[in-house]
Amino acid sequence: MNPHLDKLQSYPFEKLRQLFASETPNPAYSPISLGIGEPKHPTPGFIKQTLIDNLAGLASYPTTIGSEALRTSIAGWLERRYGIPALDPATQVLPVSGSREALFALAQTVIAPDTGALVVSPNPFYQIYEGAAYLAGAEPYFVNSDPARNFAPDFDSVPEEVWQRVRLLYVCSPGNPTGAVLTLTDWEQLFALSERYGFIIAADECYSEIYFGAEPPLGAMEAVHKLGLNTVGKPYERLIVFSSLSKRSNVPGMRSGFVAGDADVLKKFLLYRTYHGSAMSPAVQAASAAAWNDETHVEANRAEYRAKFAAITPLIQEVLDVALPDAAFYLWADVSRTGLSDTEFARRLYAEYNVTVLPGSFLARDAHGINPGRNRIRMALVAEAAEGLEAARRIVQFCKNLNQ
Question: Do residues 204 and 171 share a domain?
């Protein structure tokens, strides 16, 4: 067996299952889960119909590189969304079966095993980053998020000797679970570090279309363009951007996303994936192209999230320290003032009010003397507004009862 498998921790939801194993939730309340970040808004009808209309494609083996129509639609979306120069759909864009498999597979492509390589990951983080590092024969190096800097990772804290060993850096903006968006200054620092030390940046941007301010979140390719870096050397050198239709278009079951950026890296990545066997179904490709070409459904989806967060956030703020995030669909709340740890808060809320939230410590690791997720909970506001409001009311009542 691969010995690196022994380094993997249980996924957060398995830890949650174990935490709740001895609990029987209060039968007076119907179950509400704010635990898993699985979009619950309806899938747009035109996407489903396009999928149905192209079922004849099931009779053909799909190509790993995907159809020209899909790659062109993705390139066009990137250009419109971020105001960047035209991309080459043949070399700078590659469809993938959801961003999750691509985030994992990139590490297997770019890291030479048994070289003492390090993979930098934000902390808290999406657990795929850690598993990708270990199974590529590298070690993760966690950079803690800093609440004083809008939860941006504190890259200034990373020593020189660490940067010298870094081969891959994962960054998630908008962030999971914090919802924080990196600034142009943050990106400028990362690009300078990548230039100096030669590591690849994997920019996870799957939450980019759910945001609450007037301006959409800054993207990595957009930052390159604004800083004038795509006129120096190769376009998007050492940068790979990941995105997905799951959150943007409410189609998590389609497993459809893309990677874009450095053509040389993507050439090697395509070679890896040709052997890895992750080609996208032709029917899914057709539906995906239709989704990337339409913004009306995305605007409607975003409006629904905005209304939901506007109604729910003030209620939660009555009892917990929490703020409206920059983007994404999570509330990242500090439960310290309740006197309970994040795990005890989650356990008792489940037992007494049948509401599931995810302890923040399950989404982070002890690093540099702290676990930055400890005493926080993540609430995924993915269900319809009425269910989310009911969950919020129960959380408020639970917290008020603690103080009586």
Answer: yes
DSSP state of 59: G
List Cα–Cα distances, 273 to 29, 117, 171, 240, in angstroms. 46, 22, 22, 15
In this prediction, residue 48 has a pLDDT band, given cuts at 50, 70 and 90, of very high
Average the pLDDT over 24-44 and give the result.
Answer: 95
Residue pair 119/168 in contact (Cβ under 8 Å)? The answer is yes
Angle at the Cα of 199 (from 197 to 205), degrees rounded to 5?
A: 135
Last residue of a domain, one of 294, 310, 342: 294
Q: Dump strand ranges (E) for 177-287.
A: 200-204, 239-244, 257-261
Final residue of a structural domain among 238, 269, 294: 294
Query: Alpha-carbon distance 323 to 326, whole Å?
Result: 9
Are residues 61 and 210 located together in one domain of the fold?
yes
73: domain CATH number is: 3.40.640.10
The per-residue pLDDT of the chain, averaged, comes to 96
Q: Are residues 18 and 107 in the same domain?
A: no
Distances in Å between the alpha carbon of 58 and those of 244, 249, 291?
22, 22, 19
Measured distance CA(251)–CA(47) in Å, rounded = 9
Instruction: Tell me the C-alpha to C-alpha distance, in Å, between residue 298 and each of 12, 194, 302, 317, 344.
Output: 29, 33, 6, 28, 37
Q: Quick one: 63 and 197 in the same domain?
A: yes
Q: How close are the terminal C-alpha atoms of the chain, in Å?
A: 54
How many domains, the chain?
2
Q: Whole domain around residue 127: which residue ranges?
A: 45-294
Cα 162 from chain centre: 25
Look at residue 149 in the predicted model and tell me its pLDDT: 87
C-alpha span between 145 and 178 (Å, rounded) = 9
With a CB cutoff of 8 Å and minimum separation 6, the contacts of 61 are 279
Whether residue 404 has pLDDT greater than 80? no
Q: What is the pTM of this model?
A: 0.96
